[in-house]
Amino acid sequence: MEQAVVDAGRPLPQLTDPLEVELQVSAFIGPFAGNEALWEAVVGHLQEVPSRRSGALLTALGHLLPGRPGEWARRAAAEQSRPQWDLGALTFGDCWIGDRSIDAGYLALLCSYAYGDDRHAMVFMIDEISGSLTRHAFLTRRIEEALERLKAEFRLELITAEAAHWLLSRSYDRFERRPGLGVSVDVHHTRLVARRRIGLAVN
Description:
Layout: H1 2-8, H2 18-29, H3 36-48, H4 52-64, H5 67-77, E1 90-100, E2 106-115, E3 118-127, E4 133-140, H6 143-151, E5 156-159, H7 161-177, H8 185-189, H9 191-202
Antiparallel strand pairs: 1-2, 1-5, 2-3, 3-4
């Protein structure tokens, strides 16, 4: 598994889009994010073999891994070359909420972000009937189109980034305590991307 993670970092130095970096890394490492023994071995290996790939993978892991593994990766990344993309440039935009918990049992959240002029959004469908569990989560660069589609189903209101991500934090906490509950595959693939934004907004 250690070698598989290292191999997964092979394309990272050639990428220029930080969002693509986040998505690729989150989709691959998400199932093992809590395995501290794995990340201790991976970070140790990447420290021993400095390269553009090692620096890029350590940088991505430092931003996306939770807890101590993320700290290990950040410290190790500081000793290696920086990639051409900058995950630290993420900014927050408008967030919208739509509440149909009474008739349909769902909340919808659309949270927008940007890397420079390149904007994107994450859309979350939260199942209020099943204990506020995020059932669907997807990422889109077509923000206006996503807003229009949501407006056809929900009455949307602006909400602060802090409030929106606090709601998401509660929902993802429930999901992570009971990972066997039925959610879409996109929730798993984008979990670390979402968790990163939750941490930045709430903290």
